[in-house]
């Protein structure tokens, strides 16, 4: 029975790899069309985002967690830049080329190999003069997707922070194990796990002992004690000064 199961799994994986190569070809075409200003940019961009998201979503089911991680980083790159310039579309292509290399090999890469790939990928973070604490700082922004997250993420990248995005604490925990963040910025308001509960969860894991944690709240009067957050968590109100306050927190710790 196990031989039959292995054979079926091998066939499914082969089908997945073939369909993924087809998807990568469509992504290549979309990148090329945008880069060369062919067609309706906005429509092509929306279709491209869908293809990349589908690429990310299907990979884990077939044991290619590395593809999930790389495409997540690609989505981070695209979201944290207000509008991609032509040269940055060439950077987007580098993510896709790395995914294609894995698919063409047909084998999952090792953790060490994935670390090397992630280290070589383009980053949206800009070099921020005069503040070495920010430059290259790896951060996860845990917030519902939308305009506010886009604005906050873009401004943090412009400050030199290498930003990744997550829509829930559960997703962020999985991502944290992959990219090992220096900082987690998390909204307090989530339906299943609050930001405060997430801060305590991270503090129970040795790997994240040195990871700084900031709760982003809608209330300007909340305290760590009232929210039940980890004792060393920072609390920042989501107002017009949120970026300046995040930078001040980083500099103070």
Describe the structure.
This protein is of the alpha/beta class and 253 residues long. It folds into two domains: 2-120, Four Helix Bundle (Hemerythrin (Met), subunit A) (Up-down Bundle), CATH 1.20.120; 138-252, Rossmann fold (3-Layer(aba) Sandwich). The chain has ten helices and five strands; from the N terminus they run H-H-H-H-H-E-H-E-H-E-H-E-H-E-H. The chain has helices at 2-35, 41-59, 65-79, 86-105, 111-120, 147-158, 169-179, 195-203, 224-227, 242-252; strands spanning 138-142, 162-166, 183-187, 212-217, 234-237. Strands 2-1-3-4-5 form a five-stranded parallel β-sheet, sandwiched between helices. Helix 8 links the parallel strand 3 (183-187) and strand 4 (212-217). Helix 1 (2-35) packs antiparallel against helix 4 (86-105) and helix 2 (41-59) packs antiparallel against helix 3 (65-79). The radius of gyration is 20 Å and the shape is globular. The termini are far apart.
């Amino acid at each position: 029975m196990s031989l039959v199961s292995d054979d079926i799994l091998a066939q499914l994986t082969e089908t997945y790899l073939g369909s993924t190569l087809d998807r990568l070809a469509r992504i290549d075409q979309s990148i090329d069309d945008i880069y060369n200003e062919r067609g309706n940019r906005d429509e092509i961009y929306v279709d491209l985002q869908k293809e990349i998201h589908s690429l990310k979503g299907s990979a884990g089911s077939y044991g290619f967690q590395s593809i999930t991680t790389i495409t997540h980083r690609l989505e981070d790159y695209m979201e944290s830049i207000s509008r991609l310039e032509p040269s940055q579309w060439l950077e987007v292509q580098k993510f896709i080329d790395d995914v294609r290399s894995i698919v063409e090999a047909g084998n999952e890469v090792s953790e060490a190999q994935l670390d090397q790939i992630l280290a070589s990928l383009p980053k949206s973070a800009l070099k921020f003069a005069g503040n070495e604490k920010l430059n290259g700082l790896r951060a996860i922004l845990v917030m519902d997707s939308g305009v506010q997250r886009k604005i906050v993420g873009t401004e943090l990248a412009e400050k030199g922070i290498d930003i990744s995005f997550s829509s829930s604490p559960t997703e962020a925990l999985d991502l944290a194990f992959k990219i090992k963040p220096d900082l987690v910025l998390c909204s307090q308001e989530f339906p299943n796990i609050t930001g405060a509960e997430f801060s305590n969860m991270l503090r129970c894991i040795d790997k994240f002992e040195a990871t700084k944690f900031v709760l982003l709240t809608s209330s300007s009067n909340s305290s760590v004690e009232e929210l039940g957050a980890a004792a060393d968590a920072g609390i920042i109100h989501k107002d017009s000064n949120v970026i300046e306050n995040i930078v001040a927190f980083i500099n103070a710790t």
